[in-house]
Amino acid sequence: MEQQPSPPAAARVLVVDDDPTVAEVVTGYLDRAGYAVDRADDGPAALARAAAHRPDLVVLDLMLPGMDGLEVCRRLRASGPVPVIMLTARGDEDDRILGLEVGADDYVTKPFSPRELVLRVESVLRRARPAPDVRVLGSAGLRLDPAARRATRDDIELALTLREFDLLAFFLRNPGRAHSREDLMREVWGWDFGDLSTVTVHVRRLRGKIEDDPARPRLIQTVWGVGYRFDPTRTPADGDAQHAPSEGGKD
């Protein structure tokens, strides 16, 4: 039997799902993997649990009674950074993108393998730990401190999700180079495969937080037929050129 990676000591995971069978299975697998697990079966209970014992990560069902997972995610993110993996029974891409838009770091579509979910949890938590390279990064008015997980733009703190922070850190470490969405998925998310719309949504969210005009991005440029390039040397005048969409008409 394949051995699961060891989670960080005392890593606490909050599982939020109104289906008792799903919640029990997920909790069992996470418990056996060495995590401390809390459970909640609706939105208000989840927020109360998170307030009482701040989790290191939340596994959150999209379809919850009363308050759906999107609203729960918004409120969790408003109270502070916490990684979120969204569970959804829907196959529609719009629903997955909605979860990413409100700050989810990853999503898993039901039915799913509990072992895969445990690996996703470990992957997200691993990315949340301070990187070995803890040099402060800075360019174009941006400053990132990987050790403190703190980012500022013109000395104003940025509210970045885990993946947004890692994506910006990667761009800052690799300026002037074009990267495909597959490259970014592998280097930032640590996956060799996955839904590339995840990258598209995170680039769009990041542009909304670091660009003067997200509709005409100057720093994170779309490279037609390739992907994206971070160019901290580009001037506002350079940005007057027409912005070309990425592959599939999405940028």
UniProtKB/TrEMBL annotation:
Q: What SMART domains does the record point to?
A: REC, Trans_reg_C
Q: Which SUPFAM superfamilies match?
A: C-terminal effector domain of the bipartite response regulators, CheY-like
Q: One Pfam family name from the record? A: Trans_reg_C
> Which residues in this protein are found as 4-aspartylphosphate?
D61
Q: Please give the InterPro entries that the UniProt record associates with this protein.
A: CheY-like_superfamily, OmpR/PhoB-type_DNA-bd, Sig_transdc_resp-reg_C-effctor, Sig_transdc_resp-reg_receiver, WalR-like, WH-like_DNA-bd_sf
Where does the Response regulatory domain start and stop, copy by copy? 12-125
This protein is called what? Response regulator transcription factor
Q: Give the lineage.
A: Bacteria, Bacillati, Actinomycetota, Actinomycetes, Kitasatosporales
